[in-house]
Amino acid sequence: MKILVTTSDNYVHLIEPHHLLLNKYWPGNEIVYLGFSSENVPKLPDNCSFVSLGNQDDFGREWTTPLIPYIESIEDEYFVVTVEDMMLTGEVDLDKMKLLEDEIKSGNASKAILDSHLRDKCEPYKPGLIKMKQRAQWRTTLHPSIWRKDYFQKYLKPHWSAWQFEEDNFFESYHDGANVILLEGPDNIFKAMNVYRKGEAIPRWKLPRPYGCDTPVSDEDVNLVLKYIEEKDKPKRKKLHIRPLIEGMDYEEQNPN
After folding, report:
1. Which residue from 67, 99, 173, 201 could staple onto 139, CB 3.0 to 4.6 Å apart?
2. Where are the domains of the chain?
3. pLDDT tens, 50-86?
4. In the CATH hierarchy, which fold is given to the domain comprising 2-183?
């Protein structure tokens, strides 16, 4: 499957740990990083590529405008859309992923969300699957998801930031007739670590989830990501004090307080 990863000049340092973790836990995909300047893009493995969408200064905070011509140009009927600071930190269940992908491929569903954060806004769909209610908020969430191309394009309005894409499509996505599906149950098929929140990198000790994840993550993966953050932010960022991590425990239970 093709995975489209949007990035920017400010976060190009995350491309390397992102593809290392993505290939570690979900190998065999075609990964395309969609950014701007290629000057600082690292050497990529054979299954990864970088596409420049133009000069970042020409777009400011606009997320949708540079994406529109690229999405129009590709022939894929569906693809994963995610962002570079959502790091995969656990094995992907390929059987469950196929269950979601088959629904997208057949056209029965227009979007498959790869985590469970919106399951309280869902209703039964098919065995093992649920779907978002037609009047549910956040149907256009940018959490890692499989999108049918036509459905993604429908909401890809010019001159919007990523936040506007999610929020301003609230009402338009109500009762649009599309099936937006998730796996049944609380488990995330795409176990992600949200590396930056409002520009602040992990660890964010004042928050309930300092590592930006609600599923277990290994200290090896955390330290990999921290290495690239520290290299990027030197010398303005002091060396991070990495508190002991308990592998296999949810990080909401490890808030140091």
Report:
1. 173
2. 2-183, 195-253
3. 999 999 999 999 999 999 999 999 999 999 999 999 9
4. Spore Coat Polysaccharide Biosynthesis Protein SpsA; Chain A (3.90.550)
